[in-house]
Specification:
The protein contains three helices and four strands; from the N terminus they run βαββααβ. The longest helix is centred in the first third of the chain and has 15 residues. It has 103 residues and is of the alpha+beta class. Strands 2-3-1-4 form a four-stranded antiparallel sheet. Strand 2 and strand 3 form a beta hairpin.
Length: 103
Amino acid sequence: MVIYEVNLTINRAIYSEFTLWLKEHVNEMLQFPGFIQASVFKLEEEISDQGKLTIQYQLGSRADLDRYFTEFAPRMREEGIKRFNDKYSAERRIFEVQEIITK
């Protein structure tokens, strides 16, 4: 299992519009092969002129993520850039799940 994390910094002027679009975007991402679920987190302490969100996508395997990068990522990233230009930024990280511990 793999976690694909996207950390977003969003200009407050577009924050409401961006979060509406983001919900649609995440739902579209979940339609791609290998995507299992997504969690969206809002940073509790924020800088006044920026909002910060983190999306963590859970995928079945690294091969699923590689397929996303090859076949779908350019188009998905371009949608946000065309709509919001430089009013947000994204940083991405990939985690391999080593262990899941439950109660």
